[in-house]
């Protein structure tokens, strides 16, 4: 396709021909290569009825005339042409020659005639059996022998400079050189295809896939159209066949899409992108429907693409380069290098052989320039990747700066908010501390030392305020002592202690109830009544134990809702279990019959009422609760100690057992001991 397009590009070039000489060609010994085409004469055969014997006659030989141009395009349906050249061997040696007439299967026939023979005496030369790419005929030329070579060209495209004499050694040198150059070119092409295919599979950028498609279609077209045309195609598959025209269209499609993706024409140069889209759709349309057209029609459709495609691609490249696209520089250079090679190859069809090239070596220039184009296009892809990478790095840096600024702003907000929270927390803590003062004011003293008894309290909130409380009331010779554990701890628990304390105070002090079980029932009723408005949200209550002691007789009456009571009496440890009911909950009874424990205390006897925070506190090696058994062993070993000292050591033992474990609940333990001065009835 490029070959036809560039034919139009070089129409304006000056066409220089060779003056055909009438004299015989004097061959030198082992000349290597000798072009005899410019020395030939030609004769048209419009009726296709001429025979070699006629043409060797004197009359017909006079009708041959100089060609006056090295290139003769026979067209699509024109008649064959005969070419005549006389050659002489001035040496004393017989020389073996190869006559090269063109590409393989280009329908040429060669006849040899000696001037001293009659016109009917001629030799039909057979193709050389070792011919690969070109059509070769072998013959011998004796010493001082002159012969006429008659060539009948039936191919639609033929070049008289393809008439060349060469020896076998020169032919194999050319063949090996062409093979090395082809291996180098197609090897480089395969490497670049494989490398960019790996890039596509790793980066997933479609431009690399289109580069691969471009190289595949371009390499295939070059292989068919330039290197192996005669070997691969059949006799009917020439430059003017339907298949030949259509094989150029995939190159146009691939190059167009590759250019759009690499140069970002949709964004950088939208007008050029529209023209490229037109070329793309036009090429696809011709490729799809061209199979139904005649070669004459396809010539007018496909040939302009050879002129239009380079203009579009170069125009888009220039615009993209002016827009600052670094890859466009290498892209334009790649196209420029390739056009140099293709122009040199195409100009040969008009007899313009640049750089001293011949019809047999012009494809070298195409390969060298094509290899340069492949490398430069790969370099353009590299520049595109570097530009994208640079933009990504710049974006990442901008993102880092943005995130740093956001982090600083966020840090400032966090500091400000933290300060606000600290101030708010301090105000909250101040409120809780003040609530603790209020709560402590409601609680009795922690040390009672009367003549008839001593009372101590181990009171240790988990938080600032506690959900446990104790209550002590002495009225005449009757002593009431209560320990209770409310729902929760902290502020919610402290709120419950207020309700619980007021309920016990009301039941004992104001209502003067005498039975501990009645006191617990009344407290449950009062708590339920006080929390009635909150029933829809929470279900709160408490557990508690109530002990009434007659100081005259030492009789202790005890009722408990779940909390345990421990009595140390005459060297024996007695545990009293509370009833399995709770106080103040929605389902808590208000007329429960509590079990009343009655014990007559003597001098030195002790009573301990504790909340479950002491029993349940985890610790030790395995994180088990402190437990009742461990508490009992401790009280047994410390019964001889002072009551206040015993409770203090109990708190220390609990902290030692807890070690690194967190506190789980409030602790409240109320202890009573009859003193040595107690008077018992």
Can you walk me through this structure?
The structure is a single chain. This protein folds into 3 domains: 15-31 and 33-166, Immunoglobulin-like (Sandwich); 178-393, Rhopdopsin 7-helix transmembrane proteins (Up-down Bundle); 446-674, PPM-type phosphatase domain (Phosphatase 2c, domain 1, 4-Layer Sandwich). Helix content is 47%, strand content 20%. The radius of gyration is 58 Å and the shape is rod-shaped. The longest helix is centred in the middle third of the chain and has 81 residues, at 362-442. It is built from 18 helices and 26 strands. Residues 1-23, 229-238 and 677-681 have low confidence and may be disordered. Helix 11 packs antiparallel against helix 12 and helix 14 crosses helix 15 (516-530). With 681 residues, it is of the alpha+beta class.
């Amino acid at each position: 396709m490029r070959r036809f397009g560039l034919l139009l590009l070089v129409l304006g070039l000056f066409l220089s021909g060779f003056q055909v000489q009438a004299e015989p060609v004097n061959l030198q010994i082992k000349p290597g290569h000798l072009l005899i085409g410019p020395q030939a004469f030609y004769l048209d055969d419009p009726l296709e009825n001429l025979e070699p014997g006629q043409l060797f006659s004197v009359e017909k030989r006079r009708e041959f005339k100089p060609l006056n141009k090295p290139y003769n395009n026979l067209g699509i349906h024109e008649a064959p042409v005969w070419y005549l050249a006389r050659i002489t061997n001035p040496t004393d040696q017989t020389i073996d020659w190869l006559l090269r007439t063109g590409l393989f299967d280009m329908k040429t026939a060669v006849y040899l005639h000696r001037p001293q023979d009659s016109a009917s005496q001629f030799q039909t030369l057979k193709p050389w059996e070792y011919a690969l790419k070109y059509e070769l005929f072998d013959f011998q030329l004796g010493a001082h022998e002159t012969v006429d070579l008659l060539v009948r060209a039936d191919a639609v495209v033929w070049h008289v400079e393809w008439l060349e004499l060469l020896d076998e050694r020169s032919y194999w040198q050319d063949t090996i050189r062409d093979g090395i150059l082809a291996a180098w070119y197609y090897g480089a092409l395969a490497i670049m295809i494989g490398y960019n295919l790996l890039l596509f599979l790793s980066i997933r950028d479609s431009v690399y896939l289109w580069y691969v498609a471009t190289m595949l279609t371009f390499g295939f077209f070059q292989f068919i159209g330039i290197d192996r045309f005669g070997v691969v195609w059949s006799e009917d598959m020439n430059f003017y066949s339907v298949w030949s025209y259509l094989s150029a269209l995939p190159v146009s499609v691939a190059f167009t899409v590759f250019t759009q993706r690499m140069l970002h024409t949709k964004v950088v140069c939208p007008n050029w992108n529209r023209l490229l889209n037109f070329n793309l759709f036009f090429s696809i349309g011709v490729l799809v429907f061209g199979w139904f057209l005649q070669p004459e029609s396809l010539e007018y459709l496909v040939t302009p693409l050879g002129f239009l495609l380079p203009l579009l691609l170069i125009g888009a490249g220039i615009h993209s380069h002016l827009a600052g696209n670094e890859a466009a520089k290498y892209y334009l250079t790649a196209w420029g290098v390739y056009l140099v090679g293709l122009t040199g190859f195409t100009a040969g069809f008009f007899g313009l052989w640049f750089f001293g090239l011949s019809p047999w070596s012009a494809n070298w220039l195409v390969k060298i320039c094509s290899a340069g184009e492949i490398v430069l296009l790969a370099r353009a892809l590299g520049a595109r990747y570097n530009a994208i990478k640079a933009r990504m790095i710049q974006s990442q840096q901008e993102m880092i700066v943005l995130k740093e600024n956001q982090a600083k702003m966020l840090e400032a907000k966090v500091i400000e908010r933290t300060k606000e929270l600290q101030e708010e927390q301090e105000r909250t803590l101040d409120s809780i501390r003040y609530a603790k003062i209020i709560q402590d004011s409601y609680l009795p003293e922690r040390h009672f030392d009367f003549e008839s008894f001593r009372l101590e309290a181990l009171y240790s909130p988990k938080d600032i305020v506690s959900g446990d409380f104790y209550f002590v009331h002495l009225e005449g010779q009757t002593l009431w002592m209560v320990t209770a554990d409310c729902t929760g701890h902290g502020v919610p628990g402290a709120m419950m202690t207020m309700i619980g304390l007021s309920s016990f105070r009301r039941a004992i002090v104001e209502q003067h109830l005498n039975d501990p079980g009645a006191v617990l029932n009344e407290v449950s009723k009062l708590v339920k009544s006080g929390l009635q408005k909150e029933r829809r949200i929470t279900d709160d209550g408490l557990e508690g134990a109530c002990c009434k002691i007659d100081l005259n007789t030492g009789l202790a009456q005890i009722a408990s809702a779940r909390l345990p009571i421990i009595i140390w009496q005459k060297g024996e440890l007695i545990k009293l279990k509370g009833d399995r009911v709770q106080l103040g909950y929605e389902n808590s009874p208000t007329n429960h019959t509590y079990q009343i424990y009655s014990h007559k205390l003597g001098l030195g006897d002790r009573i301990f009422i504790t909340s479950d925070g002491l029993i349940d506190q985890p610790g030790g090696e395995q994180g088990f609760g402190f437990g009742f058994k461990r508490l009992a062993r401790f009280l047994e070993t410390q019964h001889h100690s002072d009551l206040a000292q015993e409770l203090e050591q109990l708190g220390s033992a609990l902290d030692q057992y807890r070690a690194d474990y967190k506190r789980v609940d409030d602790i409240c333990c109320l202890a009573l001991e009859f003193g040595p001065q107690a008077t018992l009835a």
